[in-house]
Amino acid sequence: MTHLNSAAWCRRTALAAAAVLAGLAPAQAQRGAKAAKAKPEKPAAATAVAAVPVTDSVALRRIFDEALLRGESYENLRYLTGTIGARLSGSPQAQQAVEWGKATMEKAGFDRVYLQEVMVPHWVRGSKEKGEIVGNKGKEIKVPVCALGGSVGTGGKLKAGVVEVHSFDELKKLPDAAVKGKFIFYNRPFDDALIEPGLAYGRAGDQRRSGAIEAAKRGAVGALVRSLTSARDDNPHTGTMAYDEAVTKVPGAALSTNAADQLSLLLKANPELQFELEMECATLPEVKSYNVVGEIKGSKFPQEIITVGGHLDSWDLAQGAHDDGTGCVQSMEALRLLRAVGFRPERTVRAVLFMNEENGARGGKEYARLAARNKETHVAAIESDGGGFTPRGFNLEADAATLAKVAKWAPLLKPYNVDDITAGHGGTDIEPLQEAVHPKALIGYKCDSQRYFDIHHTAADTFDKVNRRELELGGASMASMIYLLSKYGL
Hints:
It is built from 17 helices and 16 strands. By secondary structure, it is of the alpha/beta class. The strands form two sheets. It has an eight-stranded mixed sheet, with helices on both faces. The protein has an eight-stranded mixed sheet with strand order 3-2-9-5-6-7-8-4. About 50% of the residues are buried. Mean pLDDT is about 90; it is low at about 1-55. Keywords: Carboxypeptidase, Endoplasmic reticulum, Glycoprotein, Golgi apparatus, Hydrolase, Lysosome, Metal-binding, Metalloprotease, Protease, Secreted, Signal, Zinc, Zymogen.
């Protein structure tokens, strides 16, 4: 690298900064400075970046400046996670979060703030779960374990033998005598060869979601599931599970990855060992809760709606910081940023804090139902539910023409490293809109996910794991996409 003196460095830095504001590459800005000293020439053909409207470049720069210098996401998240904490659907903390979300958006000065009533499941964990590996000589080894969301309790201590499998197909091949009256231990790990951890999560997730059903079909007494993560630690990961009303309901619990490795190793040495599980979880009657909606009315096309949101509920083991406190505060912040820089969206924009994504997605379904009932026109919906890490871009569920149109905005987003625009999943809460009102695009905010599943659904999902700059950059990225959608439509 060539070293520059301080004056030259300052001059080049100033030119680069001016280039960002003008939508030009730094090299173009340097050529422009030299041209100012020479005789004017006939302009050359504009490059793809130079053709981007200057006004849009300046607008996005102002959005990011506001977020980085005066952003409010981080302090909002500090309050949500620190003062309110975990927000499992049906809990008092979930209701406190609803009231906080409504008050926060009213304080931000949105045109309209309101609640959408929705009935949600009310599952409670009860006392801390206990799990022990019991050897044939009575030796007991305590291991980290937690109930899967929606599981039935054990009704006291439940002790049984253990059969390890890695797939449902492997379970089906075992004789009845080998599995009846035992725990089925699903020990399929993440596929760490996959670059995107979300793909590994998806491929390993069936054992958590349906493991108890498949175990009960074979006469097993319960399901033990390896936590869905590539991290090796003592944090068990909860998450929702399902039951089939035609099949006996048996308990489902997650083992930490260290505990799963230990149990697997000990089973190889002693196939006759037992596992003892104690859980007091239960499902109570449903509870009335709410989505929280904040709205800025469009100046030209108020009947056309852009939704941006995250889910307000969280699992009960920690503070729900990355999942999905970050998505909630970023969604509210996206609207605040547009107001702060003086941009009045041409299309109506809504920030929605969805309730009950984790164990039912009732909030997203109700939002879509009401949109259809009211015959609303939705241009697009954006969801942030992948953590508050460094922004990378956006996933789109859309036809090829729409994807191509949005991809043309990438040069505007490139200075902020958020120009990775590809086909992909939009989000669980906005998915019901597809069938209900057929928006042009469902858009998933995409950030660096390499660390996400280390803390996902665990006691480690706390405020201290969130970086302020990464969080504020995410809100600005979402606000920038809204700016472009509002101005140009789809």
